[in-house]
């Protein structure tokens, strides 16, 4: 019996434990932090051995295979020991994909992957049996065990791709690449880029690669690296023969001389970046033979993703918008770009080596006041204090929202788009977004 050790007792860890047990592995789960009660109950009910608030090396270093949570960096001492011992380390998507024959659609990118994955799933589920997993929702491994869908849309982070070996999606989507998480890649952008491109490394000419042809970083990488799969680019600026492009507010998608035209006038999601997300999702749907009418209707009635440019409430003619999911500068770039009224901008958190220069033009044009919400706001203050009349610091969400309420006039927007990680003051970006929404509702 092979021994499977799982580091991390969260959604992906517990899902992998269940699948591993069902596939006759001897399973042990180890978490350095506290395992949530709901996950402990699952492990106990399924008689899976686990520990939390510690890692017992003797119980870990005797593994045949280790599934590590994507949150654990390679520089952790235990991970180094595991690698030195020559034990195979994989991510959940690598482990789980061995046990399904389903068609896999893998979506990665610095921004837009959650929206694109959720939108793609929304379109496909109208006509196909499809699960949504990866970096989102219920564990991929657990779905393979319990729901066994014919298709999966997987939202995949670079951390999950770092630990693949044979993982091979039928369709890979790369939304864009901008600097993010560089602290995990020795502050070398090229390491992060290479990590994202691992999504195509096992693909063959029978598979498909859908990508943003307006993204210089992607194009530069493709000039010097051979990609085996069939390429289907999408673009807002150039005409594309095989793939998708924009022509007079219509998305034109062509695959093997089969053309479909989708009007963008009634897209549920606003903003140029969402036209791209719609292009990627429709190209996947077109490949999987979803009817044109279904694709169009699905794009028009999609509700969007929580914490991503989510319209919360209008109070005294001021629109409050929750974009807590903007954990890097590029995501905030899209948010500010889509603002069409003077904006009070709430920004800040854990800076991941951010460069704010690309935001300057929007701040000059659209932002009337900035509220810095973080433990250390020095870099933000330095970057923006000469651009706006009002720049204020706080460490409380409720206070940030009250200040915004005082600063905003009828017709303005109040935008939470932090451009940073949330771990200094909040549990995660969801917690940050919920606190914002609660504070707005309590005004």
Structure notes:
With 443 residues, this protein is α/β, with parallel strands linked by helices. The chain has 3 domains: 3-90, Rossmann fold (3-Layer(aba) Sandwich); 94-301, 3-Layer(aba) Sandwich (UDP-N-acetylmuramoyl-L-alanine:D-glutamate ligase); 310-441, Protein-Tyrosine Phosphatase, Chain A (Alpha-Beta Complex). The chain is 35% helix and 23% strand. It has 17 helices and 20 strands. It has helices at 11-22, 37-45, 57-60, 77-84, 92-97, 113-124, 140-146, 158-162, 189-197, 216-224, 272-287, 292-301, 329-337, 360-366, 378-384, 397-407, 429-441, and strands at 3-7, 26-31, 49-52, 65-68, 88-90, 103-108, 130-134, 151-155, 171-174, 208-212, 230-235, 243-247, 250-255, 258-263, 310-315, 318-322, 343-347, 367-373, 390-394, 413-416. The chain has a 9-stranded mixed sheet with strand order 7-8-6-9-10-11-12-13-14, covered by helices on one side. Strands 15-16-20-17-18-19 form a 6-stranded mixed sheet, with helices on both faces. α9 links the parallel β9 (171-174) and β10. The radius of gyration is 22 Å and the shape is globular. The N and C termini lie far apart (59 Å). The mean pLDDT is 93.
Radius of gyration: 22 Å
Q: Total number of helical segments? A: 17
Q: So what's the CATH class of the largest domain?
A: Alpha Beta
CATH homologous superfamily placement of the largest domain: Mur-like, catalytic domain
Approximate helicity band: 25-40%
Based on the coordinates given, report the CATH architecture of the largest domain: 3-Layer(aba) Sandwich
Pathway: Cell wall biogenesis; peptidoglycan biosynthesis
EC number: 6.3.2.9
GO molecular function: ATP binding; UDP-N-acetylmuramoylalanine-D-glutamate ligase activity
Domain Mur ligase C-terminal: 307-420
């Amino acid at each position: 019996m092979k021994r499977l050790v799982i580091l991390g007792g969260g959604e992906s860890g517990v899902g992998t434990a269940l699948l591993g047990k069902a596939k006759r592995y001897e399973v042990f789960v180890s978490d350095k932090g506290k395992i949530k009660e709901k996950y402990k109950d699952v492990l106990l009910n399924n008689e899976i051995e686990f520990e939390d608030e510690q890692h017992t090396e003797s119980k870990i270093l005797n593994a045949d295979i280790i599934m590590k949570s994507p949150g654990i960096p390679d520089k952790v001492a235990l991970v180094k020991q595991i690698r030195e011992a020559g034990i195979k380390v994989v991510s959940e998507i690598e482990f789980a994909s061995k046990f399904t024959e389903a068609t896999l659609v893998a979506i990665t990118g610095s921004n837009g992957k959650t929206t694109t994955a959720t939108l793609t799933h929304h379109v496909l589920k109208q006509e196909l049996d499809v699960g949504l997993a990866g970096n989102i929702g219920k564990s991929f491994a657990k779905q393979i065990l319990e729901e066994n869908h014919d298709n999966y849309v997987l939202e995949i982070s670079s951390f999950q791709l770092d630990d693949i070996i044979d993982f091979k999606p039928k369709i890979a989507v790369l939304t864009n690449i901008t600097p993010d998480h560089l602290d995990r890649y020795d502050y070398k952008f090229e390491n992060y880029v290479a990590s994202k491109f691992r999504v195509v490394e096992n693909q063959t000419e029978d598979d498909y690669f859908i990508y943003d042809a307006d993204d210089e970083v992607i194009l530069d990488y493709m000039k010097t690296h051979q990609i085996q799969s069939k390429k289907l680019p999408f673009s807002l600026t150039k005409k594309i023969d095989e793939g998708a492009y924009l022509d007079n507010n219509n998305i034109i998608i062509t695959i093997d001389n089969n053309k479909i035209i989708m009007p963008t006038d009634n897209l549920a999601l606003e903003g140029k970046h969402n036209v791209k997300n719609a292009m990627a999702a429709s190209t996947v749907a077109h490949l999987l033979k979803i009817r044109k009418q279904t694709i169009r209707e699905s794009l028009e009635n999609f509700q969007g993703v929580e914490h991503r440019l989510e319209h919360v409430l209008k109070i005294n003619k001021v629109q409050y918008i929750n974009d807590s999911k903007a954990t890097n500068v590029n995501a905030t770039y899209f948010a500010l770009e889509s603002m069409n009224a003077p904006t009070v901008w709430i920004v800040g958190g854990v800076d991941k080596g951010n460069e704010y220069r690309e935001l300057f033009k929007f701040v000059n044009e659209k932002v009337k006041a900035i509220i810095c919400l973080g433990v250390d706001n020095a870099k933000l203050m330095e970057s923006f204090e000469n651009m706006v009349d009002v720049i204020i610091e706080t460490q409380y969400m409720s206070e940030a929202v009250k200040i915004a309420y005082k600063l905003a006039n009828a017709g303005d927007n109040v935008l939470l788009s932090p451009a940073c990680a949330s771990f200094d003051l909040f549990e995660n970006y969801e917690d940050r977004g919920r606190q914002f929404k609660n504070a707005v509702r309590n005004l």
